[in-house]
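Example record

The entry below shows one chain as it appears in the dataset: sequence first, then structure tokens.
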Amino acid sequence: MTQEIIPFRAETDDGAVLQAYREGQGPALLLITGLGGTAGFWNDIAGTLGRSFQTLRFDQRGLVDSTRGSAPCDIDRLARDALAVLDAAGLDRAVVLGHSTGGCIAQAMANLAPERFDGLILSAAWLKACRYMTALFGSRRAILDCNPQAYAATSLLSAYQPRWIEAHWHVYEAAIAAAPVSEEARSVLRERIDALLAFDGTAGIAETMMPVLVMGARDDMVVPVYHQEALAAALPGCRRAIMETGGHLFPNSRPDFFTASVAEWIGEL
């Protein structure tokens, strides 16, 4: 049975208008994407989890159908945007699931409004960028400025296992077709890269009192698994779900494991 997807919009205090989508029924689950920032990343995941939960997802500021607004872009600003989505949906509380940069945003949300969250899922997330990540994203930022198609290609090629890409070549082709060729699109991505590299959650993580699930993949070449191990060490009571393979975008490459782990953990809250 196909679930109805209900679009809605959220307005921020600096004039951004965020395109959001609601799907399914049950406890609220807010899905926050990584650097790409699009609601579309969660299309299949939201459909699966929407059988048990009310899922919400949105295009982040300046991306796809959401406007940029006027405020400087940092992780706290993106966290306030996500809170605006909950407000627009009329929700006081939710579980928040953030993947990659979305995990940084989720940590910031938990610090800004801890009373609004029943649980936190940090997927391929980190506390503070290491030298490896700084070098990787710095290189990608430089490639973005001179060759957007190469930026799209290298981003995709580093995010999945080679075997998975070979079997899903249409995903690669779609990424190249959607390369950020306009200066406006590149500007939004540059500021998002700067924001994720500047994030430091080491001080705030000690204040996190809600249940937390930390997820990762041992073959992640974008955010290495030692970052999830550091998160787990900083959160002694958290649950861990670490898979051996899946690459950085394991919600897409390992959807059965991902959705089962998320649903089981939320069900135990």
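Notes for this example: The domain at 5-129+199-267 is CATH 3.40.50.1820 (Rossmann fold). The mean pLDDT is 97.
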